[in-house]
Amino acid sequence: MTTTTALPTAIRADVETLWDYHDMHHPAMTTDIGIGLGSHDLGVATCAAQLLAAGRFPCIVLTGANAPSTIERFPRGEAVHYREHALSLGVPDTAILVEPRARNTGENITLTRELLAERGIEVASVTLMSRPYQQRRAYATCRKLWPEVDVWCASLPLALDEYVASIGDADRVVNMLVGDPQRIDVYAAKGFAIPQDIPGKVRVAFQRLVDAGYTTRLV
């Protein structure tokens, strides 16, 4: 299969609409803990390392087992590979906790919460680090499953084209972007997350991209 890092001109406006919607646009905050949510994207661990170095939190939890989309890239598990990457960026091992069992965002939250409780680490605020287009869904999930903490979201500060180039596959990124608005609706209806407003222009952009064939990440 041929992959490209260039977004097709015909869909760019709709992709940009979803990209902006998923970004929570949270300001930089100091929190009690940083949580790196497992995925195929090592940029999450890079973000965690940078924010730790900037003093945004004293410790990082890296969480994730594997999904079908990550088993080949991270055969020892997402959190394990995240840890190795963070160490390579100079993060002290003493500042990293690993949660290696989570298979989805809900488990990222609940199993991290359990791990911190087991370690006697009290948390009133968290920084969730994720892929840029996962921020809103991660926020909604954490607010449902861990309502007593304040939640801030962060990702590597990359522009859309920079992010697509870093992943190396425009189709994959667009399919992921399209999958998340649907999950925001579906997971809230199932009680997995708090509801999020989805503006009309976002729903229109989502549907046009679905009609254009970007459907591989729909549930």
Automatic annotation (TrEMBL):
Entry superkingdom: Bacteria
Entry-linked CDD domains: YdcF-like
Start and end residues of each DUF218 domain: 45-148
InterPro entries membership: Cell_Envelope_Assoc, DUF218, Rossmann-like_a/b/a_fold
Residues passing through the membrane, by range: none
Protein name as catalogued: YdcF family protein
Organism: Kineococcus glutinatus
